[in-house]
Amino acid sequence: MKRIGFLSFGHYQPVPGSQARTAGDALLQTIDLTQAAEDLGIDGAYLRVHHFAPQFASPFPLLAAMAARTSRIELGTGVIDMRYENPLYMAEEAAITDLISNGRLQLGISRGSPETALRGYEAFGYLPAEGSSDADDARARTAIFRAAISGAGMAPANPQMTGRTGLLAIAPQSPGLSERIWWGAGTRKTAQWVGEQGMNLMSSTLLSEDTGVPFGDLQAEQIAIYRSAWAEAGHEGMPRVSVSRSILPIVNDLDRAYFGREAAAGSHDQVGHLDGGLARFGKSYVGEPAAIVDQLQTDAAVHEADTVLVTIPNQLGVDFNSHLLETIVQQIAPDLGWR
Q: Which of 44, 143, 154, 295 would you call most buried, defined as having the most Cβ atoms within 10 angstroms of its Cβ?
């Protein structure tokens, strides 16, 4: 059985046609859309996190507000850049948000992606240790964060205040949160590491490597490597895997006005240079619902993943995106195994 969620980048800009002209617009509309998505039966609402850009930034206040307005839908990130995070403060925020949501948080984290600021994490006061890269630093922060939400002692107790010695854990704790951490992987090597670490796997519409095979096939290979590494490491339970797709069904004149030209032109994988190497970008699925179903049926990674996150054009507003999600859950998702 598949889960279907939406992923919003939270773009806002005062340009013609935008329904999200300010940060307030983007934030408040996301709360409304999450409630509408829950009413439609959508399984998850996820936020992409960026810094120094007109998009979503620190996500926990927004996630808590989304939690307060809903009762069932999963709430997550895809992904938080750990280079910018104080792992203990983040552990407190994550636990509080998870408790407010009654255990619905699905937290995607990673080393991050190319961004508008040069070494923006340094402006936040975080510099990698001597001899370490920013990727090393993100993984080290992640290890501290995961230990903290699992209840490990983090700071020595003050005997005058506590009457004991030893290490104190962060408070509050949210049971089960440690099992709902995902890592955003852009390569097969990273996917193997994620499996070894025992985190869930989150794979996007971009892989920072290319072998010449279609995007879905390369991503399916990444998923297979991840699951093999998970099993070999001896982790218990069944790991979860998500992939992201741009799905834009056309069922009326407004859809056609927005996306008809893109549908007529067709969409294909793109290969380009990113971070000094080749990267493969997945295509968009645009057109009549039946045609989209036919294309997704041949997408190997969609078949392998248990969760599909649909990237939405959030600047088109709540009503349009509710319509888009309703079309997907009624006319596309059931043929992919969603119920």
A: 44
